[in-house]
Amino acid sequence: GDIYGQAKPPVLGSFAVKKIEDKAREVMKDHLPAYMYTFGSAGTCSTDAANRRAFNRWKIVPAMLKDCTTRNVETTILGEKFNAPLFIAPVGVQGILHADGELATARAAAACGIPYIMSSASSRSIEDIAKANGPNGQRWYQLYWPRTEEITISLLNRAKAAGFSALVITLDTMLLGWRPHDLDTAYIPFLYGVGIQVGLSDPVFMKRSGYEAVHEITKFPFEPEKIRNAALNAGDVNAQKAMKLGKGWLDETNSGMFRSWEHLQFIKDHWDGPIILKGIQRASDAEKAIDMGIHGIIVSNHGGRQIDGAIGSLDALAKIMRSPKVIKAQTKGDLTVLFDSGIRTGSDVIKAMAMGAQGVLIARPFMYGLAIAGQAGVEQILMQTVTDMHLTMGLCGYSDVNDLIGKRDELLEPVD
Ligand code: FNR
After folding, report:
1. Which atom in ligand 1 lies closest to the alpha carbon of residue 343?
2. Within a 10 A sphere around the Cβ of 204, how many other Cβ atoms?
3. Which of 11, 106, 279, 328 is a good FRET partner for 297, with 20 to 30 A between their CA atoms?
4. Which residue among 302, 338, 366 has the greatest number of ligand 1 atoms within 8 angstroms of its CB, and so is best to mutate?
5. At 359, is the secondary structure helix, strand, or coil?
6. Can you tell me whether residue 117 is helix, strand or coil?
7. 8 burial type by CB count under 10 A (0-12 exposed, 13-18 middle, 19+ buried)
């Protein structure tokens, strides 16, 4: 569109992602642990830095005098048509940054025509998020693999019934990584609050846990510290129940119980639709996914939040896309390759696609938009990323986003 013809100031006060990040910190100054949980990464944050360094190392080499007067950013992924190759990454506990939490993000996604990937650790239920996303919203469900088969099946069935068309299984978070920011602020008890929210919405879990709902104490916007203090100091029985319930749910997922490739068959047997593995970083794992008949992978290192000192995600994608088996499967349409970790601008999307991704996920920037301005803030992030990509793609000499995929040799140059 005619972006420069618009007189409207950005709702986030700026279009610059760094300024938006700083503003989110300012807005969250009375809830700094929540901001730090979002912003932070594993260990010394070196993987998060490596993600950005990888983007900075690969430089765009544009072509001139190509007709890019009209440009197309629509694409088809796993049989679904999308307005742009951009997804909202699964991000848990959005209620810590804004009272509307996931509902605001799911509404923004639908308003912008961008698909929403719902996290298993959401602070709202599957059904409520689906309703907010609406009949025209495009949505996928992300699974943190529960310990119990019954609960896994319950979540999958609920997601299917609520119109989530594809399943993303996150493989890099069988347990939470070493995150000094959260340990410093003792923010982990907040996770019990999250657990409460997710657990409360699952009838199978509630039945198994033997707890009745403790709605009063867990009402939104929930205040985990208040729950914790009430439980520990005041001996509030409801708060103690809530803590136990939340802890029980956390023991159900991200619990340290690792899975192996053979276990994927169980999910395949219980999910009717595409399955995408999130957190792939090695070519040999991408190849295994192909052997298992998995439909897609998301090359991701969880925004550097799990392993400190890991390879930048774009560098991992570069390595994976050197596998002839992966390229062959992608060309045949047997394997969809998506990417995340470090996407901030339109150029980043173009680089990831030239490297071989068919689409990308964005996480932290939309969380900052959510913290500052709720739904409207998320909408700004989505629209500015797509618009930036639209303009930059044309300036690079490409009129169709689908022509970017795998054009590493003509479009990118590594520079140290
Ligand atoms: C995440 N991420 C994530 N991933 C997932 O599969 N399930 C989840 O519940 C969460 N939760 C979550 C919370 C927060 C606060 C953040 C920042 C991230 C990881 C996310 O989907 C994505 O892989 C990375 O965050 C992408 O990197 P960027 O865009 O944040 O650099």
Report:
1. 29
2. 17
3. 106
4. 302
5. strand
6. strand
7. exposed
User: Would you kindly state where each structural domain of the chain is located, as residue ranges?
Assistant: 3-176+256-414, 181-252
Give distance in angstroms: CA of 90 to centre of ligand 1: 6
Q: Whose CA is nearest to atom 2 of ligand 1?
A: 91
Q: What are phi and psi of 197, to 5 degrees?
A: -60, -45
Q: Which CATH architecture has domain 3-176+256-414?
A: Alpha-Beta Barrel (3.20)
Please report the ipTM that was assigned to this predicted complex: 1.00
Q: Is the pTM of this model over 0.90?
A: yes
- Does the N-terminal peptide bond of residue 221 adopt cis geometry, omega within 30 degrees of 0? yes
278 CA: nearest ligand 1 atom: 6
* Contact between residue 58 and residue 414 where contact means Cβ atoms under 8 Å apart: yes
Helices (H), 264-322: 264-270, 283-291, 313-320
CA–centroid distance for 332 within its chain: 27
- Each residue's pLDDT expressed in tens, for the chain with a length of 416 residues: 577 887 688 999 999 999 999 999 999 998 888 899 999 999 999 999 999 999 999 999 999 999 999 999 999 999 999 999 999 999 998 988 998 999 999 999 999 999 999 999 898 899 999 999 999 999 999 999 999 999 999 999 999 999 999 999 999 999 989 999 888 876 665 666 667 777 778 889 888 877 766 665 655 555 667 777 888 888 888 878 877 888 888 888 888 999 999 999 999 999 999 999 999 999 999 999 999 999 999 999 999 999 999 999 999 999 999 999 999 999 999 999 999 999 999 999 999 999 999 999 999 999 999 999 999 999 999 999 999 999 999 999 999 999 999 999 999 999 97
